[in-house]
Amino acid sequence: MNLHERRERHERRSRRNLRRASALGLIAAGVMAVAGTATAVPASASGSAPSSAKASTLGAQAAQSGRYFGAAVAAGKLGDSTYSTILDREFNMVTPENEMKWDTTERSRGSFNFGPADQIVNRALSRGQRVRGHTLVWHSQLPGWVSSIGDANTLRSVMNNHITTQMAHYKGKVYAWDVVNEAFADGGSGQHRPSVFQNLLGDGFIEQAFRTARSADPAAKLCYNDYNIENWSDAKTQGVYRMVRDFTSRGVPIDCVGFQAHFGTGGPPASFQTTLANFAALGVDVQITELDIAQAPTTAYANTVKACMNVARCAGITVWGIRDTDSWRAGENPLLFNGSGNKKPAYNATLTALGGTPAARATASPASPASSASPAASLPSSFRWSSSGSLIAPKSDATHNIAGLKDPTVVYHNGKWHVFASVASSSGY
Ligand code: G3I
């Protein structure tokens, strides 16, 4: 039997089973009250070819391969119209640059202030942009009352409460959290750096933080985030790799690794793609979370983007600021827009590496009805949806031992709801 005949036979059988399933009276189970957020898998990860249509912005172009393109955002700059215009035009992921850090959100014990972060998050979500949460546990930008805690039990309870309260506040609103940031030491040790968390709680503080985070918002992706872990052979990279491998092998919840990617003029190390691929092979997403490159050379930006594009589980890229003047490294002009908000050459290199063609678009007349405007250009750059739990479940009876079902269709006819689906048991569909 050839492939075509096999498919026809399968479809005939499926249709028969649909009728049978209806007669079996499949029942609708309760809808779960808490909605989570589901995210599209990069097309490359699911094996389908990325769309060949070209988009005109970073976010829209990244979305064509199921990825995002984001920026770090400062609440205090949202009123600057040059800044917010670029933000809304180009980016479909937003990371609060400082507003979710401990010294802002819990400046004194148990007293939380989410005002500045809320401003960024609510604005982003209302425009269809997603949000990365940065960061829950970090030795820096940590208020003095935390660094001066002297006993493990107090610190553990303070850390867990901080994670739980902050994640609960943003439950369902944050795509991924940097649960722990920069916990590994620079240099050749491959070990954790000293910090109040490390010193009082020991190596286990990272695992503790991730377990607490999973309970607080099971739908959010949980990332470990660090800098100088892009070069595969570096001791720091290897230390983080061993931790992620250990976590995934023992079932400690971790979904992603963030590579900050604060590069010098040379851009990423030659092994960057290998590093991303090796981490991804552990079963986690990889993300470029804080990209900036001294003097923004076009090749360096293109190489960074290509490394991500070549790794199916590289979910997206975030640049650490919008204009050079917004950057924490402003003196090095490391971003994609200059101080006036104009696109730099690195912008075009980035768009091209994402799959776009800036030059071709510049000559197209968007107003002309004859122009070959991409159908994708009119699509939103990202999609969001909420997912309930199971809506229907199989119900066996005396003669049908049903193990599972798929492809449900609900039809209202003659005052009755009918649920059609394919059902399966050990003997087949
Ligand atoms: O909030 C005060 C403000 O009240 C005061 O008026 C102002 C005067 O300078 O300072 C403000 O705080 C500054 C804060 O940024 C907000 O602008 C801090 O002094 C300054 O140190 C802080 O810098 C941030 C830095 O993290 C702190 O470590 C940068 O903006 C931010 O880009 C940078 O981001 C980090 C990531 O979180 C982690 N990875 C490295 C990355 C770059 O350092």
Please give a handful of descriptors for the protein shown.
429 residues; binds ligand G3I; alpha-L-arabinofuranosidase activity; two-stranded antiparallel ribbon; signal; 14 helices; TIM Barrel; alpha/beta; secreted; polysaccharide degradation; 2 domains; xylan degradation
Write a structural description.
- Keywords: Carbohydrate metabolism, Glycosidase, Hydrolase, Polysaccharide degradation, Secreted, Signal, Xylan degradation.
- Its EC number is 3.2.1.8.
- This protein is an alpha/beta fold and 429 residues long.
- The protein folds into 2 domains: 297 residues, Alpha-Beta Barrel (TIM Barrel); 35 residues, no CATH class.
- It is 34% helix and 19% strand.
- It is built from 14 helices and 15 strands.
- The protein has an 8-stranded parallel β-barrel with strand order 3-4-5-6-7-8-10-11, surrounded by 5 helices. It has a two-stranded antiparallel ribbon with strand order 1-13. A two-stranded antiparallel ribbon has the order 2-12.
- Helix 10 links the parallel strand 7 and strand 8.
- Helix 11 packs parallel to helix 12 and helix 12 runs parallel beside helix 13.
- The chain is globular.
- About 12% of the residues have low confidence.
- The structure holds ligand G3I.
- The site of ligand G3I has 8 residues, from loops.
